[in-house]
Amino acid sequence: MMTTNKKWMDEIAEHAIQVLLSRFWVVKENDPELYAIIRDRESVIKDFMREKCGFRLIVHRYFIKLEKIPAQAEEWMGIQAFHEPLDYVLLCSVLAFLENKSADDQFLLSQLCEELKLSAPENVRLNWENYVHRKSLIRVLKWMQEMKMIRIIDSNNLLFTHDEKEAEALYEPTVLSRYFMRTYPKDLYRFSTKDELLKADLTDDDSIRRRHLVYRRLLLSPAVYESEMSREEWLYIKNYRYRIAEDFQKMAGLSLEVYKKSALASIIDQRSRFHQFPDEKMITALCLQFADEVRHRLRTEETDRNDRGWIILTFVQFEQWLQSCKERFDYGWSKEYKKQSLSKTAKELLHFLSIWKMARVDDKRAIIYLLPAIGRITGDYPADYREKHQRNFRRDRNE
Q1: What is the rounded distance in angstroms from the CA atom of residue 297 to the CA atom of residue 310?
Q2: Where does the source fall among the domains of life (predicted)?
Q3: Residue 49 is part of which domain span?
Q4: Are residues 365 and 387 in the same domain?
Q5: Do residues 317 and 253 share a domain?
Q6: How far is residue 348's CA from residue 94's CA, in Å, rounded to a whole number?
Q7: 5 Cβ partners below 8 Å, 6+ apart?
Q8: Which residue, of 4, 22, 57, 155, is most buried by count of CB atoms within 10 Å of its CB?
Q9: Domain co-membership, 287 together with 344
Q10: Cα first-last separation, the chain
Q11: How far is CA 87 from CA 78, 132, 134, 140, 144, in A?
């Protein structure tokens, strides 16, 4: 396919940017048409993302990757398939092991296990007789397969979960394993904190640095708050909101919303490639309904607030509000949420709200803050659905 390397931002470039922002990378072997589309708009995408966000676009003959460095680390940014800190330790150790392998240089699971025991950090003592350690490694290798960093040639590795002596597998690395980690301007051992890592690629020019941080926050976070950024960054949003809004609409089909002490980017076209809220999951419906309960409480009773306007709840109060929400809406809940304990549902909901930056937990003070973003949403059932299910619910309860 002949590429034209267009110099202007159009719908094709917008589509490509949405994909690059929502995926870790695009592998040519798996998505040849998508790879070609991005190559076709490579120049305009590269210039735009470098100027506005300071993001680096890597175009390789096997893949394309937009290095999305956040302004700050957030809970949702972890690898969702990982469960323990050990998973991340093993991932880094496997990547270090693969540095000495060329693409298609095959290796055995047993060989990898021996190397990992020798190279693991001093504070991590791997023992493959330990079920937790074996399970962690299997999670890492499975995820690396899904990311196309390794291929499995022959395997009974599922046995490894139960008995390390009875399992064996043959793997080979791919080119992608060498490009998972980003490059840094200096050796990693010279960094002391994660904040230094996040800021390593930022320019010394204050005005450009401020623009990059603002665009990164707005693009990579569900919502941003005045309290979590510098005064200069918040003023940039307030003063240049129309320019930012134009850029967002033009480059990714996003709408910018700026409020008194918060801002967020919302999706204009529901067909976009982004991870969206709301989706079809039951926990999302609970979140919308809980937001409706919050609105109801604000209208009918006094609530504690801090100087930022955040609603302050104890964990007991949070469960009480959720109980009220349950009484109003649970006739439409799934069987799982109808039957499980209120405390478990509260824990799941609070975690979900925290990921979407609608709530924040202060463990030291044992309180929950409901953040302004929760006021942006609400949810209820359609009238016909509500009448039908309430009628059925009453009938089942009386039988």
Answers
A1: 14
A2: Bacteria
A3: 11-67
A4: yes
A5: no
A6: 32
A7: 40, 41, 42, 43
A8: 57
A9: yes
A10: 67
A11: 11, 10, 10, 6, 12
Give the model's pLDDT for residue 156.
64
Q: Rounded to an integer, what distance in angstroms lies between the CA atom of residue 112 and that of residue 110?
A: 5
Q: What is the pLDDT of residue 10?
A: 82
Does residue 36 form part of some domain?
Answer: yes
Per-residue pLDDT of 32-81, as tens digits, reads 999 999 999 999 999 999 999 999 999 999 999 999 999 998 888 889 89
Contact 377, 278 (CB under 8 A): yes
Residue 312 and residue 318 in contact, taking contact as beta carbons nearer than 8 Å? no
Q: Counting every residue, how long is the chain?
A: 399
Given a cut of 50, the residues of the chain with pLDDT beneath it are 1-4
Half-sphere exposure of 69 (CA within 13 A, CB side): 24
Any idea what the CATH number is for the domain that residue 56 is in? 1.10.10
**What's the confidence (pLDDT) of residue 370?**
97
| 55 and 89 share one domain | no
Which of the listed residues 220, 244, 267 is the one where a domain comes to its end? 267
CA separation for the pair 23, 112 (Å, rounded)? 28
- In the chain, the amino acid numbered 149 is M
Question: Which of 47, 67, 87 delimits the end of a domain?
Answer: 67
Instruction: Based on the fold, state whether residues 258 and 219 are members of the same structural domain.
Output: yes
* Contact predicate 284/278, CB 8 Å: yes
Sheet of 169-173, strand order: 107-108, 169-173, 150-155
**Per-residue pLDDT tens for 302-352?**
899 998 989 999 999 999 999 999 999 988 899 999 999 999 999 999 999
Place of tokens 């095959």: 106
Could you tell me the CA-to-CA distances from 274 to 19, 20, 104, 153, 243 in Å, in that order? Answer: 7, 10, 33, 33, 22
Question: Do 67 and 34 form a contact (C-beta atoms < 8 A)?
Answer: no
Q: Is residue 273 part of a domain?
A: no
394 assigned to some structural domain: yes
Q: What predicted TM-score, i.e. pTM, was given to this entire model?
A: 0.87
| Separation between Cα atoms, residue 70 and residue 213, nearest integer Å | 8
